[in-house]
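Usage example:
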Amino acid sequence: MSGDREAYGSALREAARALRGRAGGSAVIVHHDDADGLAAGAISLRIAEALGLRARAVCIEKMHPSIVSMIHSMDAEVFIYADIGSSRADLVAGAMRSGQLVAILDHHDPARVSGEGLLHLNPELYGYRGEEDVSGSTAAYMLLRELSADGATELAWAAVVGSAEVPGDLRGLNAEALADAVRAGDVEVRRGRRGERYYVVPIDEYWDEASSTYTVLGSVGYYSGGPARAVEAILRRELPRDEASSLEELRSKRFEELFSKVYREGLRRMRHLQWMDDGGILDGLGTKVIGTFLSVLSHRRIVDQDKYLVGMMEFKPEIPGLGRIEGRWIKASVRTPDALRRLVEGGGAPPASELLELAAGSVGGVAEGHAYAASGLLPLDRREEFLSIMDSAAGERRRRPRGAARLGSTEALSVSAGRSPVCPRR
Ligand SMILES: [Mn+2]
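Running the assembly step on the lines above writes:
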């Protein structure tokens, strides 16, 4: 068990004091599109309410410089980032205008930046592990509880649902939210053969099932108002099953179409990677779906098991509730098929995130992720360049066979390859 509860607690108290000073103003809640992000968004709206702030929510799929700068040009004094923002706190610090107050309630690996008016409340900064002890929605819940101990309890169950992306029995700060939810009568802990299961009374569903349902709304339904309806549903203590199943149906139809395209045309093969694009088939669905598609595809025979698998679709420049970002962009996702995954595990090949960050960064894009799955955005007109940079970087960074010249970075590679890929962010 990790975490400096005292230091984190006093950071929460300080943040609450700073935020209370802004009562009566207006706020923008920026949240992620999966269940954790949607629950964190709902909880953050309740935070704004507790502070007497008029608030509106914007759901974003990715941190991107243009998106962050558009956010901070919105007319508001308080900005809350929920389950997103930490890894690019540098972008936030750079885009903040004077007088703006920002609270980041996130659990992803934080960029360590500080600045006037920036309240970075990621429990990882206090020794907790975002992969084990705390979800984004729990991070948000902790601040809500600080602001309004009584009002918070009603949403503790949402933090439990958000925490479903963290594997194993809930612990650390997640267990604190669970204890509140149990006390409120909203969650029952049932012990199964493979550990605890959390049954959520108001929505009559287990936490992990509920998590998948909300995630479908937020991600597949990203461009059709899904995130806002999911957030509203959480605040009303409801689970929108019907909408989720029709979105799932739509997604599997599109996936079928895309599988036929891939089998008809094959994958484009380079020395160290293989790639495909959706040819517009996934248009209108949130760009998380290309990652989901690759995860399924990566186990098929058509895929070379020792090459990185790259999938691309166009990223619509129109961000719902925010506006149009400049330029035309592609969302690129990467997966490591099984044989390659073992190589990465052993330090014999670079993590997917490292390659993608390098290649996307070289063409003016952004990327993040972990050893076996990563995703990013890159300019549409620099796709070929991006692919060839990624292919040659993969070649250069492969460890040479035993006895060949030493490559100094293999130790660092195996360390990052060992991180557990728990956060389904890609
Ligand atoms: Mn999360």
